[in-house]
Amino acid sequence: MKILLPDTMPLDPTLPEGWEAVVVDARAEIPAAHHDAAALVVWGSSRRHLASAAVDLPQLRLVQSLAAGVEGILAAGFADDVVVATGAGLHSRTVSEHALAMLLSLVRRLPESREAQERHEWSDELGGLQPLHPEGRLTTLLGARVLIWGFGSIGQTLAPMLQGLGAEVRGAARSAGTRAGVEVIAEA
């Protein structure tokens, strides 16, 4: 059996005997030589690629997305017996890490510090002796109250990172409760 892998990321799967992995252009139609594929991995695939797969792969049984959202895959028109699997949770750590990096950059005023550095200035309000919690300005996550809007896999991964830096974290989601030890609120 054949599984088609996207050329948009390096993948080197260990497959059971009888399976063959073939890398295809994720932006182009599926080549005729691979119309016998039983599985398709999707990452950065164009509409053209998905439409071709939906029409040209009669033996297809599984479409595995490496992204959380599968709306584009569902819109391609795959047969009802083709299982579409989401990649929800695959990127939670890296996305949470990126969100934390952006938050720390803004809280610690790194863009302003970089601009001051380029001007060869050392501004007292950007460094040096400062109060921990100045009036009207967030300068640290220590003691900060953080609301994570949307408390799915990424929010639940980000929360302990923020808590580890001293933040008080709450989540906001469609339903209230406690998730991953964090209070989650919902609109009434």
UniProtKB/TrEMBL annotation:
Residues 100-177 form the D-isomer specific 2-hydroxyacid dehydrogenase NAD-binding domain. Transmembrane segments: none annotated. Pfam families: 2-Hacid_dh_C. One of its GO terms (cellular component) is cytosol. It comes from Brachybacterium paraconglomeratum. One of its GO terms (molecular function) is NAD binding. InterPro entries: D-isomer_2-hydroxyacid_DH, D-isomer_DH_NAD-bd, NAD(P)-bd_dom_sf. This is Phosphoglycerate dehydrogenase. The keyword Glycoprotein does not apply. Keywords: NAD, Oxidoreductase. The keyword NAD applies.
